[in-house]
Amino acid sequence: MRSTSGSISGRLPLPEGRPRLAHLASVHWGLLASALALALVGLAVVRSASAEAGVDYFSRQIVWMALGLAGMLFIFGFDYQRLLGLAPLLYTGALVALAAVLAVGHEAGGAVGWFKVGSVSLQPSEFAKLATALMITRYLAGLAERRLGNRQILAVIALAALPMLLTAVEPDLGGAAMFVPMVGGMLLVAGVRPRLLVGAALAALLVAALVWNFGMKDYQRQRVLTFLAPAHDPLGAGYHVRQSKIAVGSGQLTGRGYMQGTQSQLRFLPARHTDFILAVLAEETGFLGVATVLGLYGAYLASAAAVAGRARDRAGILLVTGLTATFAFHVVYNAAMVIGLVPVTGIPLPFLSYGGSFTLANWVAVGLILGVDFRRYVNR
Questions:
Q1: 294 FRET partner, CA 20 to 30 A, in 93, 209, 285, 309?
Q2: What is the 3-state secondary structure (H, E, C) of the chain?
Q3: Residue 211 contacts residue 380 (beta carbons within 8 Å)
Q4: Average pLDDT of the chain?
Q5: Are the beta carbons of 272 and 6 closer than 8 angstroms?
Q6: Per residue in 45-77, pLDDT tens?
């Protein structure tokens, strides 16, 4: 609410023109602090998880983190309103990249989802999520309606469906699923009638049935069946879940100690530096270490929610919401996966899991969110 002195809720007045460097002090730096803390924890755990891997993932992750920080600074200095102007171009480029990777991409883990040049691999689906968030933000911010109708909702779903389907064809169902929380969060903020949410839930069940019968390969169905009854295949598809549970349980309260986990150091735990890195953390630092990391994730999400809450334009609110919803789903699903509550998919843990494209995309998202906060003095 505007006060008589022209300020907003006791904060600095909202000037015209560009935000000044003095306004940096009012940016929610808790978001960056929690991201940096998580990334440093991630470096330590990657070093431990890959100690016996024969590949120096630790040094590589340092390089990716440095590149991510550079990308964050670049995006922070770039007005997100200008990025929204480029959204159609970025979105089209993302679709082209997703289509191209199916033809000339590198296969890993049964999916063709990477462009590989030498030892460097890039996963276009990670950047497609950012481009899609920008495109949906551009569309929804331009609408005058307070409540979205069927046409507007279908348009948003269509914008997300294209990259989602291309990602699923790789096949990468985990990556494709990440578009769902983005769309759901942005639609809720934009204004959706409750009855439409019920219809969407029924449609999702129908789509899930079609995907199960026609869109999933045998090994993907086996993962779901293994989740429902992991004891039926303890040395096959259920191996990941069983070893992860052993690692988590053996950590107890304070853990076995840094680089002292038997599941990771003796190579029992698969994908220990990527999808199951939280299990390594649990084994080495115990409940207290995991609780600390989850607290950092909570601080990150609370900071992002605060940025969305005080953004002064519709576009800023929508963009932060979409990015935050995707981030939150990554954290919740990965944490549930390592303790066997959901099926195993290739959904990594933000800032902790090793991965070049994923690391870059996470830091670019931080830059976008901080940029929205910094420019709330102008974009209103």
A1: 309
A2: CECCCCEECCCCECCCCCCCHHHHHHCCCHHHHHHHHHHHHHHHHHHHHCCCCCCCHHHHHHHHHHHHHHHHHHHHCCCHHHHHHCHHHHHHHHHHHHHHHHHHCEEECCEEEEEEECCEEECHHHHHHHHHHHHHHHHHHCCCCCCCCHHHHHHHHHHHHHHHHHHHHCCCHHHHHCHHHHHHHHHHHHCCCHHHHHHHHHHHHHHHHHHHHHHCCHHHHHHHHHHHCHHHCCCCCCHHHHHHHHHHHHHCCCCCCCCCCHHHHCCCCCCCCCCCHHHHHHHHHHHHHHHHHHHHHHHHHHHHHHHHHHCCCHHHHHHHHHHHHHHHHHHHHHHHHHCCCCCCCCCCCCCCCCCHHHHHHHHHHHHHHHHHHHHHHCCC
A3: no
A4: 85
A5: no
A6: 999 998 877 788 999 999 999 999 999 999 999
Cα 58 to its chain centre, rounded Å, is 21
Q: Are 357 and 66 in contact (CB under 8 A)?
A: no
Q: What is the mean pLDDT of residues 262-268?
A: 82
Contact criterion met (CB below 8 Å) for 155 and 135: no
b/e per residue 289-306 (b: at least 16 CB within 10 A): bbeebeebbebbbebbee
The fraction of the chain above a pLDDT of 70, given in percent, is: 83
238 or 241: which leads in pLDDT:
241
d(CA 192, CA 322): 15
Lowest mean pLDDT among 176-185, 219-228, 319-328, 335-344: 219-228
Q: Which pLDDT score is estimated for 333?
A: 94
Query: Which two structure tokens, joined as six digits, stand for 326?
Result: 């995707």
Please report how the helices 194-210 and 150-169 are oriented relative to each other, as an axis angle in degrees rounded to 10. 30
For residue 103, give both structure tokens.
């033809």
Separation between Cα atoms, residue 380 and residue 367, nearest integer Å: 19
Q: Maximum Cα–Cα distance for the chain, whole Å?
A: 70
